[in-house]
Each structure stands twice: as structure tokens, then as C-alpha cells.
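Please check our next protein.
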Amino acid sequence: MLEICCGSYEDALNAYRGGAERIELNSALHLGGLTPTAACLSLVLRDTKVKVICMVRPRGAGFCYTPDEKTQMFAEAEELLSRGSHGIAFGFLTENAEIDVKETEKMVKLIHQYGGEAVFHRAFDCVSNPHESIETLIELGVDRVLTSGLAEKAMGGKDLIRALQEKYGSRIELLAGSGVNASNVRELMEYTGVSQAHSSCKDWQTDPTTSGEQVSYAFAAAPHENCYDVVSQELVAKLKEVLA
């Protein structure tokens, strides 16, 4: 299973045309991915045949949310599910970097009420105890965990991913992501035993209006300071070819 991380309708089209089987639909990928709009989801469902997992995340930074943020997250999740999202990617942590059991259980029940897939995203990579945390997620009914093995990139965390797959792979799906591309995906999957990979297949497009003489809206470092990130159809196709 190849899942592509998309930040827009255009990204989703490129992922679909490149051969992706499933996408994680976001907005604001430069912040790590935030909740997409309902309109974006509707367009993707209309114009592609991929399975769509929508991110629900109200802001950047970490995953310990205020009561108001949680209210927003549950409202967004229900709206997206009611409009046809095949699942929701989310993550709730406590201040002690442990799974927020109460909110996670509530979100899983909401997602399953709509027949969707409950995916705990890379908030998992910030937990203090990965084995205890994944056991908690299994008990709460989470369907899948996206993880880099608590490392910056999945290849750096491949030993933990392998250990988690060997011990828990029969009880919960593991999706390896972060830094996954055509040059390392086969090695990563063969080493860890996971059967699902998550990749951004990122490329850059230039927008000359990003910077003025005294004003800049850049979010990327040089040499991409006047660019925005996009999913490359060609990189998706290449990754798909390697997996095939």
C-alpha cells in the first residue's frame, strides 16, 4: 500500500495520476499538515478513485490541545466523515508525552461510527514509551499508526519500526513514513516487514510573488525561498514502480 501525503486538491490529482492507492489529505504541509477544507475533500472524492484519509489538526507545533481546540477537532472530523472521508488521521497527547486516552477513545468511536479508519499520526513519534503507547492504541481500537520509529526519518527509526511490527503487526497496521522515497522504500519495507509506506514525493514550484522588496511570505529555506511544495506525479510513479 502506497500512501501519499497531499496538501491540496492539485496534490491529490498528482498522487492519483501517479498511481497512489491512498492519500492523507491535509492543508499547510509546511506546518506538518493541518485539517483540509470540506470543499477540497469533495473535489478529491469527485475527481479521483483513491482512498482519502483526512488530517484533523487545528494548528502547528505539538499535540497537547486546549478544550477549545478539541471542540474544533471533533467538529471538523465529523464534518469530513459526513462528507465521505474514508478515515481520519489524528493524535492526542498529554503534557507528559503519553497517549490522551479519553480523547483518543472518543475520536476512535466517532470515526468508527461512520465506518472510517482511525489513524494515529506521527504524534506517536513524540511519545515517551512507544511499546506502552502502541498497546494503549490497540486497546482503544485504533486501526493504524503512522510512524518514523521515533526518529527524524523512518530509515533512522527502522529498528524500532521492525520491533513494533514483529510484536504488534498482527493487531494493528503500521505505516512507515518520513523521508521515504524511491531510493529507500524497498530496503525499509523489507527490513521492517511493514507492508505500507507513506511519502510526500515532494517537489517545488516557484511563485515569483512570494517576496517583494520589503515583504516576504517565504516559508522554505534557500534555494526554495520563493517556492511552495507540491506532490510530483513523476516521483509518485517512480515510487510505485519500485514497489511493483
